[in-house]
Amino acid sequence: MRIQLIGLGNVGRSLIELIENRKEFLRSLGFDITIVSVSDSKGTAVDEKGLDLHEILEQKKLGWKSFHKYVKGYTALEAIRKVESDAVVELTPSASGGEPGLSYIKAALMARKNVVTSNKAPLVVAYHDLMKTAEDNGVQLLCEATVAAHVPVFCLINSCFRVDELLKVQGVLNATTNFIIGEIEKGRSFQEALKEAIRGGWAETKYSDDVDGVDPARKLVILANSLFRKHVKLEDVNVKGIRNIETMVKRAQKSKKKVKLLCEITKDKDKLKMSVAPKQIPLDDPLATVNQGNMGIKFTFKTSKEVFVSAQFTSPTQTAYAVLNDMIKTNSPKPSCPSNLLYHARKSSEREHACTVKRFFR
Q1: Which side of the chain, N or C, has fewer Cβ within a 10 Å radius?
Q2: Catalytic-role residue among 60, 113, 120, 219
């Protein structure tokens, strides 16, 4: 499997370390991963025979000084178009408007390369267009890591609940705000909790997208467009952050409840109600058990009723794991994201396959 990697931030570096550390195990499962190009914001390292991953990490630290395989100014777009590969792994940061990740993903799909991404922004602004482009070109766009790191979302729904009707999604989908709320519960002020989150690596120095609810709102848009087959935008989500949450936390503690920045999608006939806001949750609600920087989701189905899944989140390695798992899935003939399956079904000649998708999204 020949891979092009775009983005060498925390998740990108963690992914390289994970592939290197699990190399023999992956081979034992029949997956031989070769990274043929790595692009950052300033250039690209290329070796079509395969880059040495340990060397890539070391050279990145050194600023690529005297590394002959790294070409400054050789952009990710050029690498996508010129370097032969099976898949492009796009891990650039989310940004308003979706760029530059949106252009990278489009170019890769048009080049008939599978794409795996952890970048939310391109999917927020162009989810259905990108999925249709993937289908039209006979490739896959997989995005498990975009919503809640390694918490199973798309794979869970597609594997276990394809013929049920999804009515509601509720989740704690932002590790940063969940950590901050936990620190406030210990008696810290919001500012003190925020400083601790930055010191501990839970929050970036540019933290507004997290504490103002923009990051989890992006995740809701992806969930709504994929799981509910809707065409929604970021402005369709009612959003409230946690900057003034201290009083609510104190009230909740007195009434033996927990405060969470709750992300909700509720199906109301043919419409969706979507919100991100801090709310008090009873202790017997499974979402109340999602503490510190962890994340979790509760699904409500017509037949299966409530299904809850959560996972500990301790480092970018877990997001990298979700990316790696999607990379492995690109070798499978069956798409793993419900919307990939939806677009595949539209053109499928297998009536039963199409019917299954229709029942799921009914």
Answers
A1: C
A2: 219
100-139: pLDDT as tens digits: 999 999 999 999 999 999 999 999 999 999 999 999 999 9
Is CATH 3.40.50.720 what the domain over 2-150+317-333 is classified as, yes or no?
A: yes
CA distance 46 to 3: 11
- The residue assigned the tokens 């104190």 is 250
- Judge whether 88 and 76 are in contact, CB under 8 Å: no
Domain ranges of the chain: 2-150+317-333, 154-314
Partners of 90 in beta bridges: 6, 117
The pTM assigned to this predicted structure is 0.88
Pick from 320, 240, 244: nearest CA to 276: 240
Looking at residue 340, its pLDDT comes to: 54
Fold match, 2-150+317-333 / 154-314: no
Residue 315 banded pLDDT, cuts 50, 70, 90: confident
Instruction: Give the Å distances, CA to CA, from 196 to 149, 179, 199, 205, 210.
Output: 22, 9, 5, 11, 15
Return the CATH fold of 154-314.
Answer: Dihydrodipicolinate Reductase; domain 2 (3.30.360)
Q: How confident is the model at residue 325 (pLDDT cuts 50, 70, 90)?
A: very high
49 is catalytic: no
